[in-house]
Request: fold
Amino acid sequence: MSTAEKKPSEIARDTLKLLMTRKLVPTPANFRSVYQEVSGTTEPPPFPADPLRHIVQALPLRTPLQQRHRAQLDAAIAQQSWHDLQNALVAYANAANAGANATTAAGVPAATPAAKADTSNSEFLEQLARMIENALPALGTDDARFVEQATRLIAAIRDPANGLSALRPLLGNFTLRLSFAAEDQAEIRNTLLKLLKLIIENIGELSREDLWLKKQIDALAEVATPPLSLRRLDDVERRIKEVMFKQVMAKGRQMEAQEEMRRMLATFVERLSQMTTSTSAHHHQMEESARLIEQAKSIEDIGPVMKNVVSATRGIAQEIKNTHEELRTMREKVNATQAEIVKLQQELDTASTQARHDPLTGALNRKGLDEALVREIADVQRKETPLCTALLDIDNFKKLNDTRGHETGDAALTHLVAVTRNNMRPQDTLARYGGEEFVIVMPDTLIEQGIEAMTRLQRALTKQFFLAGNEKIVITFSAGVAQLTAGETPQDAIKRADQAMYLAKRSGKNRVVGA
Ligand code: GH3
Ligand code: MG
Ligand code: MG
Reply:
């Protein structure tokens, strides 16, 4: 009898017999294997779900990724799928491997052999250094401290003497600064785009005014010259917006007023010609009457003629009266319109002074300075960096005015501003504080550095002298420098700088004194 014909009960019985013959313990596994031998079938071994579950439960479940893999493993076991189980296990192992590499990068020594770890660490660090080097130009060079910090960090990364843990605080500081720089860059781009849009929107409006258009283009060209700084963009945006708005308004109203004047002039001329016509008609009537009176033979003949004369005279008188009245109202109107035009012209003139810039030197005015200080103080609080204010006052300026005239004095002020601009950093702010007094706000600057900067400016002024006609004049100034203290307003710091400047004057001028 072949095995294929055996009943399951017979196979079971034979299996037991064989087990006894072979002296095998009748465990389920032994029974199953001998049963298969007897029946001639080759069933796949049963899926060991329970032991596998037991193993899987021992795997760590700390991260969401590990939890996800665990769920995959559980599902594979529930499905009794060797294939799914294999996939889930491979995925789990790969994830664990990646985690181990990340730990190495973060600075904790990996469990790999030391030599191998060293090579991969140094490769990684070199890449990091190169990445920082490459990213730097994109972040601008406005902030000297940032550039310096980055350079130091790159050198530290490349120094094999530095362990990963030594780099960690440097990287932390750099990342913080990087986030500020990135924020600034984003804001610079936004402001630039807004500015551009604003200009384009208004070109159509202002294209009739060539001079004005030119000024706008110049301002834009100035801003578009690197290095870009948020403060400069902000200044120009405000400047353009405000002056443009006021000029457009005032110009519009001025044109209306001029149109009104033109209309009145036209009416006046028309009236004048009407008056001449009607007066000459009356004259004609009078002449005719005079002729009739001359020819009259009797008083009866004169009666009707006199009537004509009276009516013509009355006509003339009325005409003159009307014209007088009209002329008076028109004159009043003209005066009112004239006054309006003068007022508008004044508004136009003050538009530029009301803006944030001093029209003579182009430096910020007091209003512009106040606004810049608000921004500066916010920055100082955000970045916790030092800030210096300097107040400088030209020495013996009155004498220069008195001996060479006010215009030369004006040119000297412009010269001082130009030299100062050339010598200050893009992040510094220059404002005209009074007649011949200027304030320089220097962010990220300690008092010693502030004093040094002013001394440098003094030296620059001795080299870049002022030319009055053909004569070289060295402009000198006295300055006080104060570093903003905690809880102090920038205005208070400027006051202290002013007092220090006064001391500089008292001790012989052409000096810089720290407050
Ligand atoms: P000190 O060295 O003590 O500062 O003497 P000083 O002559 O510079 O100072 P003082 O305050 O006596 O005179 C300042 C002069 O500055 C007086 C004023 O006429 C002149 N001034 C102020 N604003 C302007 C301006 O916009 N243009 C010109 N040309 N002169 C100005
Ligand atoms: Mg003064
Ligand atoms: Mg002075």
